[in-house]
Design goal:
The protein is of the alpha/beta class. The protein has helices at residues 12-23, 35-48, 64-81, 109-132, 162-184, 210-219, 227-238, 262-276, 281-285, and strands spanning 3-7, 27-32, 53-58, 88-91, 135-139, 190-194, 247-249, 252-253. It has a single domain (3-285), classed as Rossmann fold, CATH 3.40.50.720. The protein has nine helices and eight strands. The structure holds NADP nicotinamide-adenine-dinucleotide phosphate (NAP).
Length: 286
């Protein structure tokens, strides 16, 4: 049975994807930040699929120490139960913010959760992914288009605009996937970004101010249910031969921003390594 790790599996897109993948026979390891939400999510999945193989791990992915701890626990499980192999990692946890807010490490929160958390978790799980010839899937967004990385001020603390910070974090998802493919495709790893479309979830209603909350409550009414994008993750996991594209929506390849170049990907990769205190080259030496 192939094992898949999904971050942000306690609600929204991650939860529906977790359900669908258990229904397709995958062993799913979900990560969530709240014990109550994780327990509720597990019960919901089991109510829909009593045979589901679903385990939850708790971690606040805004904190690098928590990412490392959860990754250690998951690696221990993979070594004991899965021959050290991880078939796929879905970096899906994400947030929106209304103001400039930072993590314990002092990183802007949307950049930290939407990009850096996946970057560090992937690094920690890379030996298991390499062993399986695994796939790494980021939850991106159409909003990565029409923007450039602000290299001189990547946390955007000067004149902070929360929407710009969100869009930039989604461009980071694209560049990270590109950077992974540039470095690890020859080692059997494939990375993708899924554009879920506009999806009816509560993302804009969590830890946001009244205005963002109100706008999102109106906007999400036009969204599709999270079961719709879940099909695209399943499509990317199910294909026996890893698909060749980078960016997918509704199970089809989609055009992406011209900012997604190897040069930008490499620059972000090196910066993210520095911000996480890791060096991806190390995992090839293990
Ligand atoms: N909804 C859309 O229209 C849309 C469109 C494009 C892209 N996306 C992307 O889709 C992804 C999933 O979002 P969603 O719409 O499904 O929203 P959601 O329902 O709020 O799901 C976000 C998930 O991330 C978890 N999370 C939040 N902060 C966390 C933290 N510090 N540590 C660990 N987990 C944390 C949440 O946990 P809790 O359950 O405890 O809140 C939840 O499981 C995000 O990356 C988002 O940017 C969404």
């Amino acid at each position: 049975m192939n094992t898949v790790v999904i971050t942000g599996a306690s609600s929204g897109i991650g939860l529906e994807t977790a359900l669908l993948l258990t229904q397709k026979g995958y062993n799913v390891l979900g990560i969530g930040r709240s014990e109550i939400n994780c327990n509720r999510a597990k019960e919901w999945i089991l109510s829909k699929n009593p045979d589901a193989n679903i385990t939850f791990y708790l971690a606040d992915l805004m904190q690098q120490g928590e990412i490392t701890r959860a990754a250690d626990e998951i690696n221990e499980y993979l070594n004991e139960k899965c021959n050290g192999k991880l078939y796929a990692l879905i970096n899906n946890a994400g947030c929106v913010r209304s103001w400039y807010m930072t993590t314990n490490e002092g990183y802007e929160q949307q950049f930290a959760l939407n990009h850096l958390a996946g970057f560090l978790l992937t690094y920690k799980l890379m030996p298991a992914l390499l062993k399986a010839g695994g796939r790494v899937i980021m939850t991106g967004s159409q909003s990565h288009k029409g923007i450039k990385i602000n290299w001189d001020n990547i946390m955007l603390q000067k004149r902070y605009n929360p929407l710009t910070a969100y869009k930039q974090s989604k461009l980071c998802n694209m560049l990270f996937a590109k950077g992974l493919n540039d470095r690890f495709a020859i080692h059997g790893i494939r990375a993708y970004v899924v554009d879920p479309g506009l999806v009816k979830t509560d993302i804009g209603n969590k830890e946001t101010g009244a205005l963002v909350n109100f706008i999102w409550s109106l906007r999400k009414r036009h969204g599709v249910p999270p079961s719709v994008p879940a099909e695209t993750y399943a499509f990317l996991c199910d294909k026996k031969n890893a698909p060749e594209g980078l960016y997918y929506c509704l199970c089809k390849e989609k055009k992406y921003s011209r900012q997604v170049t190897s040069e930008n990907a490499d620059r972000l990769f090196k910066l993210s390594e520095r911000l996480c205190g890791v060096h991806y080259g190390e995992v090839l030496k293990i």
